[in-house]
Each structure stands twice: as C-alpha cells, then as structure tokens.
Fold this protein.
Amino acid sequence: MNEHELLAKLAGAARRDLPPDIDVCQRVLQDIAFLRPRRAFDPVLGYFALAACLAAAVTVALAVGSWLRMQDPLLVLANSVTTVI
Amino acid sequence: MDSLDLADVGGSLRGDGQAFARIVGRHQPQITARMWRFTHDRNRLEELVQEVFVECYVNLRSFKATGPFSHWLNAIATRVGYRYWKRQKQRASRTINLQDWDLPVLARQEQPDPQRVGEALHALLARLPARDRLVLTLMYLEELSVAKVAEQTGWSLTMVKVQAHRARKKLRALLEKSGLADLLKDMEQSS
C-alpha cells in the first residue's frame, strides 16, 4: 500500500464523518444588511481603460522625446549662432 | 434547483433579503459539509460558513449563470477555506504524534470510526503546506476529478496534477519522518 491507497482508505471512512448541525442564516442576513453586491468587472470597460492608458503612455513618450530634442546642446548652439548671425 | 437559484439570485440583486435567506437555507448543508474539511472546530466552522455566504452576496453580480450556482458557490467556499489555512500559522512540529490518534490502528481496521478517522486525517493533512493540503482534500475527501479541482481552485490541469504529485510525495516523507513508513510496508505485505 502506498500513500495514495492509504489516503484513499482513510478518506473513504472520513467522508462519513458528518459536520455538526449549524444555522448561520440570521447572522448572514445581519452581516449583509448594510452591504450591496459589488459591481461585476466589465471587460469592455477594461479594454477602454487599457486603451486610455496606452494612449497616455504614447503621449508622455512623445512629449519627453520632444523636450529632450529641445535640450540637445548642438541644437542650442545652432540656435545661438543663427541668432548672432 | 437551478431555476430556484436563478430566481433568488435575481431577487437578491434587487434587494430582497428573503431571496438571499432562501439561498442560504438551500445551500447551507452542502457548504457546511465542505467547510468541515477545512476545520473541525465548531466555532470556526460557523465563521467560515458565514464568510462564504457574505462573500457570495458581495460577489453575486459576477455569477454568470453559465454553470450551476452550487459550483460557483463551492468555488467561493474553497477560496475561503484556503485563505483560512493560509492565515493559520503552520504548526511548528511537522511530525505526527501517533499516540494522539492511532493512525496505524485506524488504517488497519476494516470499518474504522468515521469521526476518529476524520480527525486523524485532518491532523495529518494539517502538517502539509496549504496548497498541498488543499489539493489532497479536494481530490480524496471531496472526490473531485482533476478538472473539477482545477475549476474550483482556478489552477490549470497540469498545475493540479503536479501539485497532487508533490503533495503525495511530501505526505510520504512526512509519514517516514514520523516513523510511519513501517505502516505502509506492513499494509503492502498484508494486501
């Protein structure tokens, strides 16, 4: 007999071990008296949120890229030279 | 029962407390039996059953009626039970005290006392980590197939098989460490 058979044998007997008779109905009703079911997750709303996040990330990347280009020392020098000329 | 459940789920979502009371009344025995696998303490049992129904109510809108309501409710019960086990600190000692519940005697009896076996098995599995304990409890005590265990736990089929294999190996190591390896050998010879 291996551990699988030992477990199967013990579990077979343990299945007849019945729980005590309890009633939680009133306690559950008291608990939920001030609760409301949560809104279920809406996949369409999720896709919109994801698309909005991606759009925001692209916009930020473009803005940072533009700002870095404006800070390019060569570009600043060229602008200064052009201004002097 | 499914049509009754569907009607009462609709009623509960419209704020009818009596509809939810009927759901609790109808499914309480089944949930109590399931939670009995997670604890053998009566007070804890009441708390866990209560927690299952409160969680069921709060998540009622996510019930899609693609399968029976009882399956959905059982998955919640499994989640609540698993969380409870994870909250519990694992016992420091991973060895089994044979004198406490006579596992060798129970395993050799033809028709052992169900209550004693239930307690012994509960104590034996309590020495395993929560994931191992969960997969063995669902597969052996609840007699669920691999597919059903996967459905109830949210794990993949492969994950369930791997977890069950590992859990059985850990159980064997635990039995050996506790001096119970002889029990397995004796039973192998006698069978």
